[in-house]
Amino acid sequence: MAFVSGSGVALRVGEARAVSGACVTRVHAAGGMTVRSSRARVGAGSALRMAVAEPATAADEGMLLEDWLRLDVDPALDKCVRSIFSACKEIAYKIRTASCDKMQCFNDFGDEQLAIDLLADKAMFENLTASGVVATASSEETPVEKEITPGGKYSVAFDPLDGSSIIDTNFSVGTIFGVWPGSKLTGITGRGLVAAGLAVYGPRTTITLSVEGKPYAYEFLLIDDFSGRHGNWILTKTFSTVTEGKLFAPGNLRAVNDNKGYAALVQFYKDNKYQLRYTGGMVPDVNQILIKGKGVFCNPESPTAKAKLRVLYEVAPIGYIMEKAGAKSSDGKQSVLDIPINNTEVKSQICVGSAGEVQRFEEMVGVDNYSPSY
């Protein structure tokens, strides 16, 4: 048995000690897997913090994705999720080996040179088809419902390469996906999601996953060290709380020119000395809120700077993950999970983050300049 402190320091049996201001989580060694079983507050006046598992390097740490899914997840959903993780592994490699010019990034595919976003799209469709459990899939690259496997149990919508416009600068980019039961990806809402994830292709390749049957959001790391675990996905973090904190990522800043509420909100952030942390990619900007455990990401619209984020491919999956992680989401008046997805082109403004920051967004920005497309 081992313990993991809130600061991420592993304490083995006999070494457990009170750590002031830290949360300690018991971890049981079970066939080389870690199982997060309980949480305790340690030390006088300690703040409740999320316990983070260290990267798996010992027999009592690091649960494999397939073992983790097998515990509580429907077998067909297990196959669906693992097929997406396989696609993201391919995409990560293609990004690392791509060559870029000022306009686009390419990768050799046999005798053909294809744009990296098209290769990502291809990898997703091929792996979803191979799973044998996906009835319908739809990509933001070609936003139509495509039949994959007749009689399949689930349908998947995805943005294969979010942030493709900044990939040439070597910024982090990502993949976003959502899984719904049945064969339809219209006439639904985010409330029907049974799984969603965001992959981050940066210095490390990670996927944060939320899935039906599991209470929180969970980060998996792609092991890329040429050890015996090379190519495996290992559970590394559990996200259950997003607290208040002065960190903001303001998307669509052009909207401040004719959205007075958004202009006032950005000025509030500046006046109150918030930290600006914005890359221009939704995936890394949302992911940092999970990692830091605080902050807010917002992307409102205005009469001249309309919302560009599609609910099916980006907004609903992100909202599902964030709400599972203990954060809030809003389109200015309601959770983004309640937005009707009547067609694949529905777009929305969005704010995700701590409860207080999302409430501030609703009060200061709201829906005065928002024209829903549903």
TrEMBL record:
Residues 244-365 form the Fructose-1-6-bisphosphatase class 1 C-terminal domain. The lineage of its organism: Eukaryota, Rhodophyta, Bangiophyceae, Porphyridiales, Porphyridiaceae. Its cofactor is Mg(2+). CDD domains: FBPase. The keyword Transport does not apply. HAMAP family: FBPase_class1 (MF_01855). GO terms for molecular function: fructose 1,6-bisphosphate 1-phosphatase activity; metal ion binding. Gene3D superfamilies: 3.40.190.80, Fructose-1,6-Bisphosphatase, subunit A, domain 1. This is Sedoheptulose-1,7-bisphosphatase, chloroplastic. It comes from Porphyridium purpureum (Red alga). Pathway: Carbohydrate biosynthesis; Calvin cycle. InterPro entries: FBPase_C_dom, FBPase_class-1, FBPase_N, Fructose_bisphosphatase_AS, SBPase. GO terms for cellular component: cytoplasm. Belongs to the FBPase class 1 family. Keywords: Carbohydrate metabolism, Hydrolase, Magnesium, Metal-binding. The keyword Hydrolase applies. One of its GO terms (biological process) is fructose 1,6-bisphosphate metabolic process. Residues 77-236 form the Fructose-1-6-bisphosphatase class I N-terminal domain. It holds the Pfam family FBPase.
